[in-house]
Amino acid sequence: MMHELEKYGNIPVNVAVLSEVTSQYKFPRNKIASMEKHGEIIRLKKGLYVVSDKISRKSVSRELIANHLYGTSYISLETALAYYGMIPERVYTVRSMTTKRAKNFTTPFGSFEYKTVSSDYFSIGLRQEIIENRYAFLIATPAKAVCDMIVATPNLRLQSVRAMQTYLLEDLRIDLDAIKNLDKSIVEQCIEAGKKKEELKCLLRLIEN
After folding, report:
1. pLDDT at position 5, please?
2. CA angle centred on 76, ends 44 and 199, rounded to 5°
3. pLDDT tens digits for 61-90?
4. Distances (CA, A) of 111 to 99, 106, 147
5. Which of 92, 81, 65, 58 shows the shortest CA–CA distance to 171?
6. DSSP-based three-state secondary structure for 147
7. Where does the chain have alpha helices with state H?
8. For residue 73, which of 11, 24, 110, 122 has the smallest C-alpha distance?
């Protein structure tokens, strides 16, 4: 059994996968419950588990969990900015964007939050981050993560380049060099597809100046 579970590494698995692993048992679901009780697998939500790192010998990836917990989704907002080292704060809630309705989850690995965006906006500026050729997760590029912060933050009104600069430098504490290096083409696509067009135009002008 240990070997059978180990092959899944840190990739979340559903009940169907676990039922295959336990198919030789008379009551597979009872075996799954026993595996959870003994800490071999950890429940993320109903029907979705991750193999314990003691068995998988792989450290759990909160980014990978976020992609599997609620989808289709991608890592973004402060989580992506912290991942790229663009903001100094440590981020405790893993925040993502989705085309489905907004939702929050609390798991043994922390809190996961999902914000809703339109499907045409969703697909802009994403990248697949491949970790040690073992697993991959979907994450916003730096430019898309900044656009998402502007689009997804309620009551955020930034009507000038100066106001945008103050927000990015003082509120988010993003370095000015990092702002200047953002991909303009992604911001332009977000302006076409997203909300808060005037704010995103201010961001574009700030990058260009």
Report:
1. 87
2. 145
3. 999 999 999 989 999 999 999 999 999 888
4. 19, 5, 22
5. 81
6. helix
7. 2-6, 15-21, 28-37, 53-56, 62-69, 77-83, 119-122, 142-152, 161-166, 176-180, 184-193, 197-208
8. 122
Amino acid at 158: L
CA distances, 57 to each of 21, 45, 48, 161, 164 (Å): 18, 22, 19, 49, 45
Quick: pLDDT tens for 107-166.
Answer: 999 999 999 999 999 999 999 999 988 899 999 999 999 999 999 999 999 999 999 999
Q: CB of 113 within 8 A of CB of 79?
A: no
Rounded to the nearest 5°, which phi and psi values hold at 77? 55, -145
Q: Assess contact for 177 and 207: CB atoms under 8 A.
A: no
Q: What is the C-alpha to C-alpha distance for residues 41 and 83, in angstroms, rounded to an integer? A: 27
One-character DSSP codes across 21-59 = HTTTSSSHHHHHHHHHHTTSEEEEETTEEEE-HHHH-S-
Instruction: For the beta carbon of residue 87, count every other beta carbon within 10 angstroms.
Output: 20
pLDDT per position as a tens digit, 27-40: 878 899 999 999 99
